[in-house]
Specification:
heterodimer; A: alpha/beta; Rossmann fold; 6-stranded mixed β-sheet; 4-stranded antiparallel β-sheet; 12 strands; B: mainly alpha; MetI-like fold; 9 helices; cell membrane (chain B)
């Protein structure tokens, strides 16, 4: 059994009175590729965003390489919550990369500058070294000839591939993909999914929130169906997507299959 | 009714007017530099999650927004020596009055520009492991600045024209020198026409340079 890279214990997230995540226990082993599926509002994006602290968990723990993130803080009434220092979160985020649905490239920087930015500003690498690493990642996503273009000149698919290279350049231990193809025109989805599959073949550990069930089936090692903030059904792609046991999973899959031909 | 325009006498005083022009530019440059720096600090304070930083900055902005500029000039020049036992010369008093007032307005310009960027850019910076300070410096401010150009210029033009209030402190800027030229030549129409022309020329050069800078800054769009 490979080592557990990322783990959550009893993870809860509330937005005001709304409970989005209700006690998530997740273990991610090195080299695993986990697809998280579920309806809108099921909490799948929130779960992903709690893993690199784009959202602060309301309760529970996140552990990276077995080490809990944050420090426990005991309140006067006896409750214990976790306090997260900004410096600790910066360290976590260097090790857990994220790709967003809306790409979020830096529009005032060229492609190569986007990919170099984390290496220069956060890791403080010399320019030549950062450039070398950035080039290698842009090669990986097949965009080595667009180095000096600004994001506004790229298609959505190209922008998302640059965003992937930007996250990869930091050499994270885990990659998080938050609906990476949901804001793309259908004909641009393929090029982004191919880039992600290349990473999968290289053994990159990843969690992927997606509506591309076919991609999840072919690329994921495990599929999690999230509903009402809990894991409703988990297992191999074959088990969850081909032979779902729970009624709700079947209904979800049926709604996705409604208009296939 | 006919009026015989005669610019000769006024133009003979060109050295005095040029001296005034330099005085105006000195105050404007010092006040813009100081005002921008202070304005940036105020904007960051107003955007802070801590009320202890937010509240004083908001009070500062409200105070300056709701009082006329000439009051600030008089306060720095006449009240400071009495209240704080600090005497300022006319240049310093005018610069401070303009800089603090403009800082309040610049702060609102900066705050608006920074707020106009959605959460996605912050998140992209943080997701790479940046501190909020790094994200602000590398990601947010460079983009916010391109959106601030127009209101920033508007404010700076206003400031440049408000330097004329320094004449009330007998500081040798353009308007003060013009009144001197007027007393010497008894040609008010010509004097103030030349004065208006000098302001127009100065601000026109300013806006041309700014337009060039704006096009270069927004080349990525």
């Amino acid at each position: 059994m490979a080592d557990i890279v990322l783990e959550t214990r009893g993870l809860c997230k509330r937005f005001g009175p709304i409970e989005v995540l209700r006690g998530i226990d997740l273990q991610v082993r090195a080299g695993e590729r986990i697809a998280i599926i579920g309806g809108s509002g099921s909490g799948k994006s929130t779960l992903l965003r709690c893993l690199n602290f784009m959202e602060t968990p309301s309760e529970g723990e996140v552990l990276l390489d077995g080490v809990p993130i944050g420090a426990p803080r005991r309140h006067r009434d006896g409750r214990v919550t976790t306090a997260y220092s900004p410096a600790a979160l910066c360290r976590v985020r260097q090790r857990v990369g994220m790709v967003f649905q809306q790409f979020n490239l830096f529009p005032h920087m060229t492609v190569i500058e986007n990919v170099m930015e984390g290496l220069r500003t956060v890791k403080r690498l010399p320019r030549a070294e950062a450039r070398g690493k950035a080039l290698a990642q842009l090669h990986r996503v097949g965009l080595a000839e667009k180095l000096d273009a600004y994001p506004a000149r790229l298609s959505g698919g190209q922008q998302q591939r640059v965003a992937i290279a930007r996250a990869l350049a930091m050499e994270p231990e885990v990659m998080l993909f938050d609906e990476p193809t949901s804001s793309l025109d259908p004909e641009l989805v393929g090029e982004v999914l191919r880039s992600i599959r290349t990473l999968a073949e290289d053994g990159t550990t990843m969690l992927l929130v997606t509506h591309e069930l076919g991609f999840a089936f072919h690329v994921a090692t495990r599929v999690i169906f999230l509903a009402d903030g809990v894991f409703h059904e988990t297992g191999t792609p074959d088990a969850v997507l081909r032979h779902p046991q729970r009624e709700r999973t079947r209904a979800f899959l049926a709604s996705h299959a409604e208009f296939t031909f | 009714m006919r009026y015989d325009w005669d610019f000769g006498a006024v133009l003979a005083q060109a050295p005095l007017l040029l001296d005034g022009l330099i005085g105006t530019l000195r105050i404007a440059a010092a006040a813009i530099g100081l005002g921008v720096a202070l304005g940036l600090v105020l904007a960051l304070m107003r955007l802070s999650p801590r009320w202890l930083l937010r509240w004083p900055a908001a009070a500062f902005v409200e105070f300056y927004r709701n009082t006329p500029a000439i009051v600030h000039f008089f306060w720095f020049y006449f009240a400071m020596p009495v209240v704080l036992d600090v005497s300022l010369d006319a240049f310093l008093a005018a610069t401070l009055a303009l800089a603090t007032q403009s800082a309040a307005f610049y702060a609102e310009v900066f705050r608006g520009g920074i707020r106009s960027l959605g959460p996605g850019q912050w998140e992209a910076g943080r997701a790479l492991g940046m501190t909020d300070g790094q994200a602000m410096r590398r990601i947010i401010l460079p983009q916010a600045m391109t959106r601030m150009v127009a209101p920033f210029l508007e404010r700076s033009f206003e400031l440049l024209k408000t330097t004329s209030l320094a004449s009330t402190l007998a500081y040798g800027e353009l308007l003060f020198r013009a009144t001197q030229v007027n007393s010497a030549t008894f040609r008010p129409l010509e004097t103030y026409t030349v004065l208006a022309g000098m302001y127009v020329l100065l601000l026109f050069l300013f806006s041309s340079a700014a337009g060039f800078a704006e096009r270069r800054m927004t080349a990525f769009r």
